[in-house]
Each structure stands twice: as structure tokens, then as C-alpha cells.
């Protein structure tokens, strides 16, 4: 198990109790919109969606869902797969998806490692991991999601020539990610100037974690890696 997961990548899954309305919504709608990894993935992930889809984007750890929902609204022909193990965050995003009738989002509420292993090879056109848990204490760095094995998982799922995007406000995690991607033969950093990694991507809506970082005096960094 240690070779497969290299540590635990998230802590508590349940925070404050859900309201009765949110709890009922989760019971009713998550089975419909959630992915069943007990079944083989379709050869073409576009078949997961009940609308005309052109390409596939995965967001690992979507938190409050601000970025996932914004992208889904702005890109109705992109199919989004959002991964989030925390019940409160999943319930919040699920409520918005149902209320707005978004047909281009599917969800997974457990460990992203399992989802990445389930995806067909070269099936994803873009992947995001935004403001993940930094595990800031050095003794916990082994729990950071970015590591050799998980980068290989991303590389297997992402089409060659497509992108993996990572954002964090923690300098040690930025350095950690740059070093791991530099050492991985299937990723190359696309930055050519300092502005390339200090500027959010086009159409960036911000996230609540980014807003918290700004309030506390930290600056986000936005890294783009090409799958080679």
C-alpha cells in the first residue's frame, strides 16, 4: 500500500454536519452525477456526459468549486471531472450543478489516486490541481500529492501535448513541484519569463484559498507543464 499511495493526501473528510436539504441532495443526486469506479471507464470519456462534449478536463481537489463551476459554465462543450473527498465541499458544488442544470460535470468523492488509475490512457486534455494541501511541515512532505508516482499517473491519463496546471501560494510546495516535474521525463515546464508563472491563466476566476492567501500576504504561483 505504501508503494501505491506514498502516504495520505487528505485529512478529515467530514466537517460540519450538512443541512437536511444538502444531505438529501447528496443522497439523491451524487449517485446520478458521481462516477462509479467499480465499472470500467468508457474508452471515450465523452460518453460519460449527457451533452455534446469536445474535450475532457480533470480538476483534482476542487475545494469550494469556484474554479470548477466557472470553467464548466464558460466552456459548455468541455466535460469536467471534479474530484473532492470533503463532504461539505462536494455538497456545495453539487447544489450549484443541480440548480444550474450543468450537464458537463461529473464528480468523484474519494481519493484522486483511484480516479487517475481508472481513467483510460491519454484520455484527458487538461488537468488542474489548485491550492492543494501543502503539508507545510517538512516531516509531512511525503504526504504531498505531487510525487513521482502521481505525476506518472497524470502523465498516463493526459494526452501528449496537453497540459497539467498547478497553483499554490506556498513557496516550498512550488519548489517541490518544479523539482519533481523537472525530474519527470514526461513533463516540461512551459514558462519562458517570470510573468508566465506569476500570472493566472486566462479566464481565471480565483478561489477562496487564493483569496485567503492574499489576505494573509502570500502570493499565488501558477505553473503549467506540458505532457511530452
UniProtKB/TrEMBL annotation:
According to UniProt, the reaction catalysed is: guanosine(46) in tRNA + S-adenosyl-L-methionine = N(7)-methylguanosine(46) in tRNA + S-adenosyl-L-homocysteine
Identify the pathway.
Answer: tRNA modification; N(7)-methylguanine-tRNA biosynthesis
Question: What is the organism of origin for this protein?
Answer: Roseibium marinum
EC main class here is: transferase
* Protein name as catalogued: tRNA (guanine-N(7)-)-methyltransferase
Role description: Catalyzes the formation of N(7)-methylguanine at position 46 (m7G46) in tRNA.
Q: Which GO terms describe its cellular component?
A: tRNA methyltransferase complex
Which family is annotated?
Belongs to the class I-like SAM-binding methyltransferase superfamily. TrmB family.
Question: Which is an annotated Pfam family here?
Answer: Methyltransf_4
The protein's matches in PROSITE patterns, at most eight in alphabetical order, are given as:
SAM_MT_TRMB (PS51625)
Q: Name one GO molecular function term.
A: tRNA (guanine(46)-N7)-methyltransferase activity
For this protein's source organism, the top of the classification is: Bacteria, Pseudomonadati, Pseudomonadota, Alphaproteobacteria, Hyphomicrobiales
Q: Which SUPFAM superfamilies match?
A: S-adenosyl-L-methionine-dependent methyltransferases (SSF53335)
Q: From the UniProt record, report the name of the gene that encodes this protein.
A: trmB
Give the source's domain of life in one word: Bacteria
Keywords assigned by UniProt?
Answer: Methyltransferase, S-adenosyl-L-methionine, Transferase, tRNA processing
